[in-house]
Design a protein that fits this description.
The chain is of the alpha+beta class. Helix content is 37%, strand content 6%. The protein has one domain.
Length: 295
């Protein structure tokens, strides 16, 4: 959770991104610009019951914080899981001319408010493919989208001479999480399947095997699903104008996971639930309604 003059934030991108199929990590990971430096006098906050100096991993984790095994759907009969491939139902435009086709569909899916400036950019499919390629490695660009940061400043609590990530930061992300929860994952999956040949072509332009784009999408989703969920607000260490995590496991986790982590436990769980639903929608045979994924 490094800050370069501010905490490294990311811009919550294409509405979890088109959640993960079309820009994985999306609005979620690229919404917040780097946050302000810590206040001069952090608030003294009482320790919550059960809190300790070091962050603890979620009880379901069986690995070090930040480097958990990635979450995957068990493959049927031992085969590798994959997004089913189907022939497009309609003729597609050339990749270079695809903006006029996909832009109105993205506007209908995401709305014209927060995403309006990004949706006017050119080469939307190529941009989405680039986000997928980066996010499966845990990377993202601060300037990927043209969005306003959440309101408020980065807050730190002080207890017994130590600094901790303040839970008061979490509320800043509530509107973003509400937006993500309202996205229709079935519609995202339908767009993915229909434009898949173009996404694969754009992925190939990045020097990647085009046929592996579907696996990259699932890998990006799984990378986010493996984000640690600390049992208590993580301890921080001030380094110049930056804070880093005191726990090396959290500090070494990817920037994408750090952005999801900083949204707070309740929001992290909500985003993960949406990602699981998206994963299920993508893996379901096209045209079928995915079953609900239990928590």
């Amino acid at each position: 959770m490094k800050q370069q003059g501010q905490t490294s934030g990311g811009r919550l991108t294409l509405a979890v991104g088109l959640l993960a199929a079309l820009g994985v990590g999306g609005y979620l990971l690229f919404f917040a610009t780097p946050e302000a430096p810590p206040p001069a006098a952090p608030t003294e906050a009482p320790a919550a019951p059960g809190q300790s100096g070091a962050p603890a991993a979620d009880a379901d984790s069986n690995a070090q914080p930040g480097i958990e095994a990635e979450v995957t759907t068990p493959p049927p009969d031992g085969a590798a899981p994959g997004i089913p491939v189907t022939a497009p139902a309609a003729e597609l435009p050339d990749l270079a001319a695809s903006d006029t086709s996909i832009r109105p569909e993205l506007v209908a899916l995401l709305g014209e408010n927060a995403m309006a400036r990004w949706l006017q950019l050119e080469q939307l499919i190529q941009r989405i493919a680039g986000q997928v390629a980066g996010l499966q490695r845990g990377a993202f660009s601060y300037t990927a989208l043209l969005l306003e940061p959440p309101p408020g400043e980065f807050l730190v609590d002080r207890r017994d001479g130590r600094s901790y990530w303040s839970p008061r930061n979490h509320e800043r992300y509530a509107p973003v999480v509400g937006f993500i929860e309202g996205i229709d994952v079935a519609a995202v999956a339908e767009i993915f399947h229909r434009y898949r040949p173009l996404f694969e072509a754009a992925y190939g332009e990045l020097g990647q095997p085009p046929e592996q784009f579907g696996d990259a999408v699932l890998g990006a989703i799984d990378h986010l699903l493996a984000t640690p969920e600390p049992a208590a607000p993580p301890e921080l260490i001030a380094e110049s104008v930056a804070y880093i995590y005191a726990d090396d496991g959290f500090e070494r986790t990817s920037e994408a996971r750090k952005q999801l982590l900083r949204m707070g436990p309740a929001h992290t769980k909500a985003i993960k639930a949406k990602l699981r639903a998206l994963r299920g929608a993508l893996l379901a045979p096209p045209g079928t309604a995915p079953s609900a994924t239990p928590e």
